[in-house]
Design goal:
The protein is an alpha/beta fold. It has helices at about 15-25, 70-75, 135-150, 160-170, 185-190, 190-200, 250-255, 300-310, 325-335; strands spanning about 5-10, 35, 75-80, 85-90, 95, 100-110, 115, 130, 150-155, 175, 205-210, 215-220, 220-225, 230-235, 235-240, 245, 260-265, 275, 280-285, 290-295, 350-355, 365-370. Helix content is about 25%, strand content about 30%. The strands form six sheets. Strands 1, 2, 3, 4, 5, 6 and 18 form a seven-stranded mixed β-sheet that branches. It has a five-stranded parallel β-sheet with strand order 8-15-9-10-11, covered by helices on one side. A three-stranded antiparallel β-sheet has the order 12-13-14, with no helix packed on it. The radius of gyration is 21 Å and the shape is elongated.
Length: about 375
């Protein structure tokens, strides 16, 4: 027997769940809302973790989706440092880490993604090796980088490029080691990627492309990395950006269909009626592309959370969810701002328009600046 009942159970303490709760209240939903997240913080935005928050230019509170008081003021029950241990989709119940069993009428699963840990490599457990996903991770990287002197970034995509830029702004020597020859080429293509590649190099970041990481070198603490070609690069710390994988275990064990994410229709409803998914974990039928997509981007999580709220309220669109043009363009525009210095000026000078293709095949355009 359930210990209590709620109208809307929102699982996951990130942007998708927070924006879902906001939209529910903004659109007049008066039922009870329970939002459960495993982190100790109120829901926050992750993009600042590799940029302004890491550089010490913004505070933790600046990253919050809603102020800490918003949840109480809007009658949204927020449970932090608590996980949903299991879901029974058929019985419409969820068991919490607190041992409570909650019956729900409808639910959103927005469990996000977990970073890929390179635990199979020699030396993977040495001190000084970092992954970035949380506020605490960002704090640890910033503080340790100051003492490290030289930081190696593994990966040539968003995390590697953004952290390298931020740490360089703080005066830390950085080297990027990556499989691809050109940074960000997997996301934007070679030509736009080369544009960012040259910006990074122009500010002293060493880029080692076409190399695969083989092992970490050190006794108790990492002192170097070694590539499969035999190249060894000394360092005081390592930050790894090796991608993420969707957190589907809860849904899978609860009887909800999963395959590279939680399988959803075009309206973001899962294989179980009344249970929706949003954010990094959501694999949805795209009405634009005519195929299934799963997009790992903060603005997609934001918009999907908002759209799922409408579904939870029974207000479903005829055509299904698709990203707005503002979401697509922000992906490009954000990169004209990522390299700001402490004094507010940018590493970027004259404007140069660049057009490329987003990995999903959506055409993007943004005005990006070259030094």
């Amino acid at each position: 027997m359930a210990d209590r009942e709620v109208d809307f159970l929102l699982i996951g303490g990130g942007m998708a769940a927070a924006h879902c709760a906001t939209t529910l209240r903004r659109r007049g939903a008066d039922g009870s809302i329970l939002l459960v997240g495993r982190e100790p913080h109120v829901p926050y935005e992750r993009p600042p973790l590799s940029k302004e928050y890491m550089r010490g230019e913004s505070s933790e509170a600046d990253a919050y989706v809603n102020g800490a008081d918003w949840y109480e003021e809007n009658d949204v029950e927020l449970l932090t440092e608590a996980s949903v241990m299991s879901v029974d989709a058929g019985a419409r119940t969820a068991k919490l880490q607190t041992r409570e069993q909650v019956r729900f009428a409808k639910a959103l699963i927005a469990t996000g993604a977990r970073v890929n840990i390179l635990h199979h490599l020699d030396g993977a457990r040495l001190d000084g090796i970092h992954y970035l996903r949380t506020l605490g991770n960002s704090d640890a990287i910033r503080e340790e980088a100051k003492e490290a002197g030289h930081v190696v970034l593994i990966g040539g995509s968003y995390i590697g490029s953004e952290v390298a830029a931020s740490l360089t702004t703080l005066g830390v020597k950085c080297t990027m080691v990556m499989l691809e020859e050109v940074t960000l080429s997997r996301t934007f293509g070679v030509e736009p990627g080369r544009y960012f590649h040259e910006i990074l190099e122009s500010h002293g970041i060493e880029i080692v492309g076409g190399e695969e990481l083989e092992s970490f070198v050190g006794d108790e603490r990492v002192r170097a990395i070694r590539t499969k070609s035999g190249r060894e690069i000394e360092c005081g710390a390592v930050v790894i950006g090796a991608g993420v994988h969707p957190e589907t275990m809860l849904a899978d064990r609860g009887g909800i269909q999963v395959e590279n994410g939680i399988l959803c229709d075009s309206k973001l409803e899962t294989s179980v009626e009344g249970i929706f998914a949003a954010g990094d974990v959501c694999s949805y039928e795209s009405v634009v592309h005519g195929r299934r997509l799963r997009i790992e981007h903060w603005d997609v999580a934001l918009q999907q959370g908002q759209h799922a709220a409408k579904g939870l309220m029974g207000r479903r669109s005829r055509t299904g969810w698709c990203p707005t043009s503002s979401a697509i363009c922000r992906i490009g525009r954000a990169w004209s701002m990522w390299a700001r210095r402490r004094d507010g000026t940018s590493w970027c000078g004259g404007a140069t328009p660049i057009r490329g293709n987003f990995s999903s095949g959506i055409s993007t355009a943004g005005r990006l600046r070259r030094p």
